[in-house]
Write a structure and sequence with these properties.
single chain; 472 residues; alpha/beta; Rossmann fold; Helicase, Ruva Protein, domain 3; Zinc Finger, Delta Prime, domain 3; 4 domains; five-stranded parallel sheet; three-stranded mixed sheet; globular
């Protein structure tokens, strides 16, 4: 079973395995690629190597035909090989019909399954397969392969265009080669980045760096200009959502993992710029913006006619998201300080009058061993290092924090699902009571559910137009 995202070489690898098994010089790790078997397998015309599309041949009758035919010996080749692409598309009954053959396969038969969604395949099938996982191809490797293709075909394509294709294919070689083929077929004269954007709606990587830099600087003019430019060259609002969230994901990985991103490694000339931008935005802002973009996708589905306005509104609001973080931190620290200031200071008892003694040098005080007092923000940062999951839940639901004489009370929004399980975990509860960096134990309370009064007119509009009311 060959597992991996689309366009990374699963079916191609299956054909290579078939050549290795049936080559006249085989079985061999390196088939000759010249014998009749190798040539016919490459063309897809070998009678003993059967390629099946699982999406269109997914019924139980199709699999029964395979089950009956697999018992006969190959006509010419050494092995009878079945390559089933998109095997996860087979029906439940089809998998049941295939299971018996996989349990007791004929010695001459081999099955090669390719899939992008292994979780949709029954465990009884997976457990009888050898699993090989394919990962996305690095951006620099995709670019090198495209350059190799151009050299073989005798065409010249600027490096910046090849780099943009490599970036946009998201690690899928097939998509990259297809995009290059379309570009060469339609471009008039020398290929340019404008041709690529007009053909595929694929924005050059620099566009996203400019956009997120403008968001970091809260520069609304540049934000609106970049959005307009993206839409003018052929990209749709849905393309904007998909590509912008991919670009932000890469920045977030840079912030969390350093210079390397999972799945797609940026080209060296752009890597340093991404590192600096990721540091400027910070993790909190990027996570918040990513959530806003995901919400934008569902809003566009509900209001397609207002898609452009929704994109502009979301990006302009994203530029101001840091103000909300700063205000929240200020309020949190202020509430703790106000609570501490409200506590009455102890009044010293009156002392009897005594003659003033002759001053003598006081001994040096012993070095303090107490932990210095931290603000609530600093304590939350310490908690993020020691218990990151718990700290993340608290930050996402946080409303207020209040310091009393005996404890620090955190008021959170009502938690559900996994968040509630984390907060109610006895181990996490005990950890909050025994924080080494906090002078007092922490206790969590949930804000009581408030009854929201809905305007009848608003309620009617929401119902009639399938809308959504936002209450802040």
């Amino acid at each position: 079973m060959l597992i991996g995202p689309r366009g990374v070489g699963k079916t191609t690898t299956a054909r290579i395995i078939a050549k290795s098994m049936n080559c006249v010089n085989g079985p061999s790790v390196e088939p000759c690629l010249e014998c009749n078997q190798c040539v016919e397998i490459e063309r897809g015309s070998d009678i003993d190597v059967i390629e099946i599309d699982g999406a269109s041949n997914n019924g139980v009758d199709d699999v029964r035909g395979i089950r009956d035919a697999v018992q006969t010996h190959p006509i010419r080749d050494r092995r009878k090989i079945y390559i089933i692409d998109e095997v996860q598309r087979l029906s439940g009954q089809a998998f049941d019909a295939l299971l018996k053959t996989l349990e007791e396969p004929p010695a001459h038969a081999m099955f090669l399954f390719a899939t992008t969604d292994p979780h949709k395949i029954p465990d009884t099938i997976v457990s009888r397969c050898q699993i090989f996982e394919f990962r996305r191809i690095r951006e620099v490797d995709v670019q090198a392969k495209l350059q190799f293709v151009c050299d073989k075909e005798g065409v010249t394509v600027p490096l910046e265009v090849l780099a943009a294709i490599s970036r946009g294919c998201r690690g899928g070689m097939r998509d990259a080669e297809s995009m290059l083929d379309q570009l060469l077929a339609t471009a008039d004269g020398e290929v340019t980045l404008d041709d690529l954007e007009n053909l595929s709606g694929l924005a050059r990587p620099e566009r996203w760096l400019r956009l997120y830099q403008a968001i970091a600087d809260d520069n609304p003019k540049v934000i609106l200009t970049e959005i307009a430019s993206f839409l003018e060259v052929g990209g749709t609002e849905r393309d904007f959502v998909e590509q912008s969230v991919d670009a932000l994901r890469d920045l977030l990985h840079v912030a969390l993992l350093g210079e390397d991103s999972i799945g797609v490694e940026p080209a060296p000339e752009r890597k340093q710029q991404m590192v600096e931008l990721a540091r400027t935005l910070g993790r909190d802002r990027m996570e918040g913006i990513m959530g806003m973009i995901f919400s934008l996708e569902s809003r566009i589905q509900r209001s397609p006619l207002g898609a452009r306005a929704l994109v502009e509104y979301t990006m302009l609001r994203a530029a101001r998201i840091n103000q909300f973080f700063e205000l929240s931190n200020l309020l949190n620290d202020g509430q703790l300080q106000a609570s501490a200031a409200a506590a009455p200071a102890p009044v010293p008892a009156p002392a009897a009058a005594k003659p003033k003694p002759t001053p003598t040098p006081a001994p040096a005080p012993p070095a303090s061993t107490e932990t210095p007092q931290l603000s609530f923000k600093q304590m939350l940062e310490r908690l993020s290092k020691e218990r990151p999951t718990l700290a993340s839940v608290i930050q996402s639901l946080f409303i207020t924090a209040e310091k009393t004489d005996s404890e620090i009370v955190l008021t959170l929004r009502r938690a559900t699902g996994t968040d509630l399980n984390v907060i109610e975990d006895p181990i996490e509860q005990r950890a909050l009571r025994e924080l080494s960096f906090s002078p007092l134990p922490w206790r969590i309370e949930f804000k009581a559910q408030e009854k929201v009064t809905v305007n009848p007119t608003v309620e009617t509009l929401v119902s009639e137009f399938d809308g959504q009311q936002e209450i802040e």
